[in-house]
Amino acid sequence: MKTIYAEGVILENLLWDYLLLRCVCTLRALPALRKRCALGAGIGAVYALLCLLPAWRWLCSPLPVAAVSGLMAVAAFGGERGLFRSWGCFLALSAAFGGSVLLWGRISGEGWCLRSRLLGAVSLWGLGRCCLRRIEEARQTPTVRCALTLLGRSTEFTALRDTGNSLHDPISGRRVLIAEEALLSPLFSPPLPKAEPAERMLLLRGTELGARCRLVSCTSVGGESLLLCLRPDAASIDGEEEALLLGICPGRLGEWGALW
């Protein structure tokens, strides 16, 4: 028979419940309610210990679980906006955590062990962070203000924020700002020679722009192609300095003429 220590049950459940309650604060954009989250986690830890006692096994049924989770939510988030939403978020995170632990336990064959719980917490954290990043990207404004400086010449324009644009230079890792050639005309005097990207790069060899040129492979609706990119002296997006490459598109890019 496996021996279960009461202090181990309390400490472990106190840790996981506290982390889950703090995750709710992050997801709901609530203040860092550390003491109140600790109080709610304490209630959950005592409840977990009672569930192990033979005389209190009835606490494992759905109604007591819902009641205790609601009490934990009130202790942690009572008085804050959207209490029921916070409670629902806590239940969803708890279910996701439990499911993740069970999945890792099945994969490893070790069941509900410490390694499965740690892997479940890490995978749930990674998934939550990815979702938060997507939500934050969706909340951002649809356009950005771009300012570029190249060989003493400067220009500013508005670009469309394209969340599907994942074009990066494979060598330097810099993100590529794509803009129509007509939009970039203030940066070039005389204008760039009319040619395909590869031919244009050869024509620019030996000029001031030659050392700044790079060909980057890109995929669009029309298929794969090469994009001539330049490294500007300075660039900023919405006032923040960015280390980027400037991709020169000879065609049209829609209403704004640039994609970021």
SSE topology sketch:
Blueprint: H1 6-27, H2 34-51, H3 62-77, H4 83-108, H5 114-139, E1 143-150, E2 153-160, E3 175-180, H6 197-204, E4 213-220, E5 223-230, E6 234-237, E7 240-241, E8 244-249, E9 258-259
Parallel strand pairs: 3-8
Antiparallel strand pairs: 1-2, 1-6, 3-9, 4-5, 5-8, 6-7
Helix pairs in contact: 1-2, 1-4, 2-3, 3-4, 4-5
Concise summary:
With 260 residues, this protein is an alpha+beta fold. It has helices at residues 6-27, 34-51, 62-77, 83-108, 114-139, 197-204; strands spanning 143-150, 153-160, 175-180, 213-220, 223-230, 234-237, 240-241, 244-249, 258-259.
Description:
The protein is α+β, with helices and mostly antiparallel strands and about 260 residues long. It has two domains: about 5-140; about 145-260, Cathepsin D, subunit A, domain 1. Helix content is about 45%, strand content about 20%. The protein is built from six helices and nine strands; from the N terminus they run H-H-H-H-H-E-E-E-H-E-E-E-E-E-E. The longest helix is centred in the middle third of the chain and has 26 residues, at about 85-110. It starts with 5 loop residues before the first helix and ends with a strand.
